[in-house]
Amino acid sequence: MENLHYYLCAIFFIFLTIKLLTQRKQNLPPSPFSLPIIGHLHRLKFPLYKSLATLLSEYGPILYLRVGSRRILVVSSPSAVEECFGKNDIIFANRPQTMAGDILMYNHRSYVWAPYGPLWRNLRRVSVVEILSSFNVQKLSSIREEEVGNFVRRLFEASAANGSPRKVDMRYLFSLLTMNVSLKVVSGKRGVEADKEAERMFLQEFKSLFFVGVGTNICDFFPVLKWIGFQGIEKRLKELHRRRDEYLQKLVDGIRLNTSRDVAAIKEEGKNPPFIEKLLSFQEKDPESFSNEVIKAMTLIMFIAGTESTVFTLEWAMSLLLNHPEVLERVRAEIVSHVGNERLLNDSDLANLPYLGCVVNEVLRLYPPAPLLLPHYSSEDCTVGGYEVPKGTLLMVHAWAIHRDPSVWDEPTKFKPERFEGSFEEKEGSKYLPFGLGRRACPGAAMGLRLILLALGAAIQCFEWEKVGPDKVDMTPGNGTFLLKAIPLEALCSPQPGLIKLLYQFQTSN
After folding, report:
1. Are 475 and 305 contacting, i.e. CB atoms less than 8 angstroms apart?
2. Fewer CB within a 10 Å sphere, N or C end of the chain?
């Protein structure tokens, strides 16, 4: 047995040496010194986007790394991004296979993680044309407006009616808002409405299930760790999947059993049936393409993408506005000018509030929810920036670095919504990437933006806002994969004197 281990180790190191020597002959992108087996793992720290930004500043905007068994290409220039999603768009149209994708995404059966091919094309078509089209997003305006009204009511209840500001937990309120919008869009019903404590517990359970992404983990780079059950990662993922699947199956079964409505008739009435109901109608016509696993995987993505990133953006937006009161006052003046104080702003008002749109664009530039876009995977050899990129390379687009590049943006670290006024030239192409680019760009961007604009606008229209204490709001990000504030936002809130009557109407109507 000892001799067998010796021979296996010898074969492994010979294979590794040959592989490394072969790579040196290729015209690979710039790369730091790597160690045997672990590659560049020792150069990567958390948060990952910051350590990668440091390496990019040393080696240039196209960086080649190796971590365990995976090759990684990191790009941080608009020209390189254009090449990846222009000339090489189909080559990079795939997603990498990951342990989390296998376990949590029903073996990659959603449009976000499905391999590029017939399944992905079908799911993408359904998502973009049948569910998340601009027409359907507009038809969902009543859901957004109703839940933003509930959000305003909660703020009013939490703030003092006598004009003395009170501290409110903004992350909690934003999370409630996005959860209830997602639930109504997906299933037709919002969360628990019994009492505040039941609501809080329901939100906590919802977040434990769905505020968790589907990224890579160390076992994807070192498969041997999966075999030995490293840190119980696979076991925890399977338990999370079990809990998610149980929740999603009950949701789907409940709608399947209780619905007696004709989706076609609802469409004729101009209404939008819930997301799951639409998928079940597709299943009746094409059960092979819309299996129960596909329906649950697509529902899962709606919950993950429709809640977490929206909460992050709203929290960063309010934090920046509290630190820049002159911008806050300009947004308020725009809303008062176009909407007034007699009613709450609605979806149709957003087109007349361009500066509010500039603020949100600038927030997404400085704090994109995914500073590293979801990874892509090369299906064959290609070239980027004159360098050879081997087949099977994982592509990471560093949106955060591009958004803060002084050669791309004027004063890139400053909060300047005015940069988006006028022709929006800087927003075009591959310079502005909060929702990705190419075939895998986020199809739900319009829906998420509408909710962010509506909620932020309503909060500014109806309430006065102040920082808690004399210091600026702490803008330190957390160490996770996604860009979340390390310290949840708390702010002092009091009703706008001119809107007290309107706010009481929201309180009495619920």
Report:
1. no
2. N
